[in-house]
Amino acid sequence: MDQKKDKKPSKAILVLSSIIGVGLCVLIVIQFYYISWNFSPSLPYTMFVVEKRGLPQKGGFVVFNFPGKQFYNPKDRFVKKVVGVPGDRVEVRGREVFLNGESVAVAKEKSVKGIPLAQLNFNGVIPEGKLFVLGMTKDSYDSRYEDVGLVDQNRIIGTGHPVF
Predict the structure, then answer these.
(1) What is the reported pLDDT for 3?
(2) Which of 35, 43, 51, 148 is the most exposed place for a label (fewest CB within 10 A)?
(3) CATH numbers and ranges of domains, the chain
(4) What percentage of residues in the chain have a pLDDT greater than 90?
């Protein structure tokens, strides 16, 4: 009588296969997502999962590279709420900023440290490839200031999804 032995893979093969499987999953996930932190008081959230592809919708959060020089290093990552999209009209009256005729923010003259702030110098329709973004506090450094301005699509890293 011919008996076949039940061959089971060795523990080493199982462990190695598991490590390779987990590694492949991690590689796939990091191509499309990563974690970003917000340590400023401009938003009530600290941690975001960032989806690297696609553009955020109005009302969502955008993660982008900071373009300016004042207060932050160029290319520092900012997370802000998208309030204006292409086709929306921005109007600056004095230091007050209107979006489609509705007041959305007031640009401060000075930072909390007393440093003068240049307000946004733009009136008109937001062009394709640009977004108007705001933080959720009056002290947020966002599109109401010239140094941040309208966020260009080539600076956008992805859409932020708040975790906590």
Answers:
(1) 57
(2) 35
(3) 14-162 (2.10.109.10)
(4) 48
